[in-house]
Amino acid sequence: MAEAYIVEAVRTAGGRRGGKLAGWHPADLGGEVLNALVDRTGIDPAAVEDVVVGCVSQGGEQAFHIGRNMVLASKLPESVPAVSIDRQCGSSQQAMQFAAQAVMSGTQDLVIAAGVESMTRVPMGSVTGLYAKAGIGEGPFSKRIQQRFGVEGFSQFTGAEMIAKKYGFTRDELDRFALESHRRAIAATEAGAFDREIVAVDVDGEPHRRDEGIRFDATLEGIGSVKTLVEGGVITAANASQICDGASGVLIANERAVKAHGLKPIARIHNLTVTAGDPVIMLEEPLPATDRALKRAGMRMEDIDLYEVNEAFAPVPLAWLRHTGADPSKLNVNGGAIALGHPLGASGTKLMATLIHALKARGKRYGLQTMCEGGGIANVTIVEAL
């Protein structure tokens, strides 16, 4: 089978809601990532054959084809096409998988996969939420869907509570996991672990290169003082991912492009998996998806050196750990979305950037990335650092 190589992987530092990146138009923010991929690899911008962009809330400033607008806001020539896709939180991970499939098939040789989400400028739910309406009708879930599943709509918050109850996770367990996310992110930041992957962008004349969401003063008591989202529940804003502005991207090439352009890959893609399951509990799908990915790759969990499991809500990676029997010390080693933020459509390639650079920094070989996605879908990508 033909190979797909990741030549470069970058991200912006996360911006808090209303924070340092709030003044950036998402097309321009994404354009900065495209520019960084070109600059760091030294490729001819015209050699890029396609740009696949993940974005969840494709309305407002992220409407009218955000992928194409990112190209137009970058140094890529207007001859470079683009496509915008939505696989909910896995949008840019799927963008990466589509790009990999393109170069593996040989139909294209050099493709950028990226993602962007300004959750400040296009708030979550303002476009794709249950009650967001456009035109005629009553929202995205038809009567037929509601009757089939016995619900009026699907909620990730409900799914997170369902997982916590199913696996018996207590509020204290979730809060301790959240605190550890901050601690790992603090340690990574202070050690300069993110320096290689972060693209600094200008904010008021100064480069923004530090994730805003990390709480350097985080304590278990402080996290425990946050109210639950529903009465009697265990999910809070403190043990769930943070609203975040950001962009990220990877440059993917096949062997022909690597040789033609004199590129030096940083990783090889070993497996591309996507599965779907129960849309009501919704967030549990990374568990069976991981099983399938490992089986298809002919690998065991013991073969994987590091894992990135998106911290949409603390019960998700905790359930994943219990199901897989994976080593907690290898999970989200530089912190996760609880501390660093979850810029929806950008999180897929954001996590991949962090995973690859963490593998290389530790001299490790194999990494696995997965995340839960709206509608009960999950992507899994297995890579080998080079």
TrEMBL record:
The keyword tRNA processing does not apply. Residues 263-384 form the Thiolase C-terminal domain. It comes from the Bacteria. Keywords: Acyltransferase, Transferase. The active site is at residues 89, 342, 372. Residues 5-255 form the Thiolase N-terminal domain. It comes from Phreatobacter cathodiphilus. This is Acetyl-CoA C-acyltransferase. SUPFAM superfamilies: Thiolase-like. Its EC number is 2.3.1.9. InterPro entries: Thiolase, Thiolase-like, Thiolase_C, Thiolase_CS, Thiolase_N. Belongs to the thiolase-like superfamily. Thiolase family. Signal peptide: none annotated. GO terms for molecular function: acetyl-CoA C-acetyltransferase activity. Coiled coil: none annotated. It holds the Pfam family Thiolase_N.
